[in-house]
Design brief:
25% helix, single chain, class I DNA-(apurinic or apyrimidinic site) endonuclease activity, DNA-binding, N-terminal domain of MutM-like DNA repair proteins, DNA repair, Helicase, Ruva Protein, domain 3, elongated, alpha+beta, four-stranded antiparallel β-sheet
Length: 275
DNA sequence: CTTATTGTTGCACT
DNA sequence: TAGTGCAACAATAA
């Protein structure tokens, strides 16, 4: 599941593979991936040059010539891969961008949940999803002051609050479980009941874990690979996600798996306090 | 066969 | 009206 560190890793590996290339042809095998009229979008992309690849939250923003931006969300299993256009289409490949230099970028997505949206550069915020994104971890907008105020307003539980992309963007199921364990906060705690001191610790840990995960090129559980086909290294740092039944590395209590708003959640029932 | 998995959206409910 | 909860989406593995 690409969360912010994984999407950033994809951005860094994808950019050098496609930068300055010109799109010769776009083939769409599964039109639902592309918002709007897929054939129309494919036609529009023809002849456009890739300028850079940006990222906002879990969204990739592929900047094209003529002031166009292809907004791409990988959702759970989306992957980009550079191939030769002659390579037979694989089972879960849904879109191909063929370049004039004889290479091709393929979009692969087992679950078909990923989405691409072609918009005019500068209007990305109009796109559903990006419109509601809150600040990025480690940004000046994500200040302790902002975070304390946001938490005070939320009546829902802390896990659901951190998964809410309008509060802070980029966290998903894996990193929320890790951040809450590190902060010794139970996921079912009411966001507004967490003491000021703990909110400060939580804020620091969100920034720290995101930074470290980006440095380690993301977490490869299930099937995450970057655009170069390389796996990440943060999975070796995980303390709770995927470790249910194993002893907590802090207190040796057996880690438990519970459901929080329908999502699988791993916790240490001893270290993590309910507020 | 059933259940769990995952991020976001759109809709229902309070 | 705004905040919150939850099914739906699709495919696969256990």
């Amino acid at each position: 599941m690409p969360e912010l560190p994984e999407v950033e890793t994809v951005r860094r590996t994808l950019e050098p593979l496609i930068k300055d290339k010109t799109i010769k042809n776009v083939t769409v095998w599964y039109p639902k991936i592309i918002m709007g009229d897929a054939e129309q979008v494919a036609k529009q992309l023809k002849g456009k040059k890739i300028i850079t690849v940006d990222r906002y939250g879990k969204y990739l923003l592929i900047r094209l010539s003529d002031d166009l931006t292809l907004v791409s969300h990988l959702r759970m299993e989306g992957k980009y891969r550079l191939v030769t256009p002659e390579r037979p289409k694989q089972k879960h490949e849904h879109v191909q961008f063929e370049f004039t230099d004889g290479t091709a970028l393929r979009y692969d997505d087992v679950r078909k949940f990923g989405r691409m949206h072609l918009v005019e550069t500068g209007t990305e915020r109009i796109t559903t999803g990006i419109k509601h994104l809150g600040p990025e971890p480690n940004s000046s907008e994500f200040s302790i002051n902002y975070f304390e105020k946001a938490m005070a307003k939320k009546k829902k539980n802390i896990k659901n609050t951190l998964l809410d992309q309008s509060v802070v963007c980029g966290l998903g199921n894996i990193y929320v479980d890790e951040v809450l364990w590190l902060s010794k906060i139970h996921p079912l705690s009411s966001a507004q009941k967490i003491p000021r001191e703990q909110v400060k610790i939580l804020h620091d840990n969100i920034n720290e874990i995101m930074q470290k995960a980006i440095k380690l090129r993301g977490t490869s559980v299930h099937t995450f690979l970057d655009a170069a086909g390389t796996s990440g290294n943060y999975q070796n740092e995980l303390k709770v996600y995927g470790h249910a039944g194993q002893p907590c590395v802090r207190c040796s209590t057996k880690l438990e798996k519970i459901k929080v708003n329908g999502r699988g959640t791993t916790i240490c029932p001893t270290c993590q306090v309910v507020y």
